[in-house]
Amino acid sequence: MPKLANAVGVTPNQLSYVLNQHLGKSFFDFVNEVRTNEASRLLIEEPDRTILDIAISVGFNSKSTFNLAFKKITGKTPSVYRSETLSQCSTGQ
What is the distance between the alpha carbons of residues 5 and 14, in angstroms, rounded to a whole number? Predict the structure, then answer.
């Protein structure tokens, strides 16, 4: 949080307040959402990449942590998300 706060020119307390009051989420949840959004894109754009490689590349330390965060945000595991989205793309839905 200190790095992001510094980058946007506020204190960590101010950043925490804005995230909690205006977005309704903690810094931890905010970061996981950003990481999950990037991972969602990579899961579809790079279907031959492993889920673990994508998880690590977006900042998660393990596949299990990634799976939990991804499912909390999207309602699906990364593998289900990938297979359903790719199948919808191939059928034109």
Answer: 8
